[in-house]
Design brief:
This protein is α/β, with parallel strands linked by helices. Strands 2, 3, 4, 7, 8 and 9 form a six-stranded parallel sheet that branches. α5 runs parallel beside α11 and α10 packs parallel to α11. The radius of gyration is 27 Å and the shape is globular. Keywords: Signal. GO terms for molecular function: hydrolase activity, acting on carbon-nitrogen (but not peptide) bonds. One of its GO terms (biological process) is carbohydrate metabolic process.
């Protein structure tokens, strides 16, 4: 009797084991669900199971190259400042257009009759084309600042660069009617191959020689001091008219009311980047 019971139990255990194996195999080979939310969960589970997948080797080996080094390596493509024998300087603004701040910046530039160069994100330009049109109509020059503002060294590669730049190029051309030949990288982060690709795409890469650090949202007088204490003939000044959803450029706007008249009193002439560098702004 005991021997019969043992045989029954052994058969039951074997059947249960086969059933669990079939279930696990079916789950592993399960196709992605049709519901979008379920797809996201399914893909996350798949990613978690495949963490051994190798990273993009190009991303792994690259680090941002210092802008001064890039200028030395690519003097016909990469620019940090203009001639130092003339009292001319260029104001530049990144990350716009931003409906919260950009038009206030434009109002101040108009008040002081100062032209500037704006490096725009494609994703924001397509959302606020009327601000881009105003920039263009008021004599400012527009450059390409990628579509989504990625760190092109950490997050991207040459294919990412080409996609981000081309997409923004198309958006800007539809709004302002020309293809800009000016590009500035988010954070200024680039490496050799990216600069070479930009040159191949007929872009001049614009850095800066004076950083206002206005993204830190210091008081207006601190932002103004960082500019006024470091400006020199030929300077390209970096500022921002755009911010993240929780960022604020009010202090940038207020600082311009100190920076512009002070530099004008010192005899500086504000010009656009292509005027300063004597390079074309269209392809």
């Amino acid at each position: 009797m005991k021997e019969s019971m043992l045989k029954v139990l052994l058969v039951a255990v074997l059947l249960f084991s086969f059933q669990m194996t079939d279930t696990m195999t079916a789950w592993a080979n399960e196709p992605a669900p049709e519901d979008p939310e379920q797809q996201l969960l399914w893909k996350k589970e798949k990613r978690d199971k495949n963490k051994e997948e190798p990273e993009n080797p190009e991303r792994e080996r690259q680090q941002p190259v210092d802008m001064n080094i890039l200028k030395e390596r690519y003097p016909d493509t990469f620019f940090l400042q203009g001639p130092t024998d003339q009292n001319r300087i260029a104001l530049t603004f990144d990350d716009g257009p931003d409906p919260r701040f950009t038009e206030d910046v434009l109002d101040i530039l108009n008040e002081y009759n100062v032209p500037a160069t704006f490096f725009l994100m494609g994703s924001r330009a397509i959302a606020y084309p009327e601000i881009v049109e105003r920039m263009n109509n008021e004599g400012h020059i527009i450059g390409n600042h990628t579509y989504f503002h990625p760190n092109l060294v950490k997050e991207g590669d040459i294919a990412t660069l080409e996609r981000e730049v081309t997409r923004t190029e198309d958006v800007l051309r539809d709004i302002i009617g020309y293809e800009t030949s000016l590009f500035r990288a988010p954070y200024g982060f680039l490496y050799n191959e990216l600069v070479e690709k930009l040159a191949e795409m007929q872009y001049s890469v614009i850095g800066w020689s004076v950083d206002s650090l206005d993204w830190q949202e210091d008081p207006p007088e601190v932002i103004a001091s960082k500019v006024l204490d470091n400006v020199q003939p030929g300077a390209i000044i970096l500022m921002h008219d755009g911010a993240d959803w929780d960022g604020d450029r009010t202090n940038t706007i207020e600082s311009l009311k100190q920076i512009i008249p002070a530099l004008q009193e010192q005899g500086y002439e504000f010009v656009t980047v292509p005027e300063l560098l004597n390079i074309p702004f269209t392809k």
